[in-house]
């Protein structure tokens, strides 16, 4: 259970390169996360944070820089908190101030179990900071089960005891269709011996610049309901369902 929707490399997720085919989405998601860390509703300074499905822990340093006490949880790897194969966390009730989840939810079959565990380990009035895909190519890790609209994500998470505080839509439809073409072209070109890799990098730079421009031209009202990724901040409510 780890966030592999965009990349499995921690450095690339937190510091994408212009010649990476998914640069525009990773850069925009990073900007949204930095905005969330600065949001007075989150209050990361001194907070106990659990990254639920942390994978390669790409944003650990960002939480540390914000003054948070970060711990990771995953099925694999030497993390502070273990997740069993039923999806249960080896953690006490109300142990954390913030639960973070980045590109994990689409890989979780039992979303209700995942959200109930997040609710359980959060203190009263704790925060859930969660990102997942509105649109992205199929990417099993080991499974890939669903995509969300903004309304669907809000309602599903809210149904499990959370209240939406803020939602950041990341990358609009003009840009993400270009990113998808970039991903496909990159895979094709990198299969060509010799010149394939540098040609893929050059094409990625051109298409990333196009995607950046397309996002600048897309009205925010369109991106709000048609984003590639949604980053959402929720408050723990009174009771989980």
Describe this structure in words.
This protein has helices spanning 10-14, 23-37, 60-65, 111-121, 150-158, 173-190, 196-217, 220-225, and strands spanning 48-52, 69-74, 81-82, 96-102, 122-133, 162-170, 229-236. The longest helix is centred in the last third of the chain and has 22 residues, at 196-217. It has eight helices and seven strands, in the order H-H-E-H-E-E-E-H-E-H-E-H-H-H-E. It has one domain (10-172, 220-236): Vaccinia Virus protein VP39 (Rossmann fold, 3-Layer(aba) Sandwich). It has a seven-stranded mixed β-sheet with strand order 3-2-1-4-5-7-6, sandwiched between helices. Helix 6 (173-190) runs antiparallel to helix 7 (196-217). 45% of the residues are buried. Strand 4, helix 4 (111-121) and strand 5 (122-133) form a beta-alpha-beta unit. The chain is globular, with a radius of gyration of 18 Å. With 241 residues, it is an alpha/beta fold. 38% of the residues lie in helices and 20% in strands.
């Amino acid at each position: 259970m780890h966030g592999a929707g965009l990349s499995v490399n921690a450095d690339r997720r937190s510091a994408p390169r212009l010649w990476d085919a998914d640069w525009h989405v990773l850069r925009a998601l990073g900007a949204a996360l930095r905005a969330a860390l600065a949001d007075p509703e989150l209050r990361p300074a001194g907070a106990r944070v659990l990254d639920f499905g942390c994978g390669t822990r790409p944003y650990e340093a960002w939480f540390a820089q914000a003054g948070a006490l970060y711990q990771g949880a995953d099925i694999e790897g030497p993390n502070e908190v273990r997740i069993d194969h039923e999806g249960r966390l080896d953690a006490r009730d109300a142990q954390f101030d913030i639960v973070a989840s980045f590109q994990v939810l689409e890989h979780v079959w039992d979303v209700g179990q995942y959200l109930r565990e997040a609710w359980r380990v959060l203190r009263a009035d704790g925060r859930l900071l969660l990102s997942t895909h509105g649109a992205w190519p199929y990417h099993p890790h080991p499974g890939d089960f669903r995509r969300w609209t903004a309304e669907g994500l809000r309602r599903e998470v809210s149904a499990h005891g959370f209240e939406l505080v803020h939602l950041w839509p990341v990358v609009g439809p003009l840009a993400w269709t270009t990113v998808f073409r970039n991903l496909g072209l990159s895979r094709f070109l990198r299969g060509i011996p010799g010149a394939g890799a540098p040609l893929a990098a050059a094409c990625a730079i051109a298409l990333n610049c196009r995607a950046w421009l397309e996002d600048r031209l897309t009205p925010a009202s369109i991106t709000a309901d048609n984003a590639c990724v949604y980053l959402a901040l929720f408050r723990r409510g009174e009771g989980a369902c």
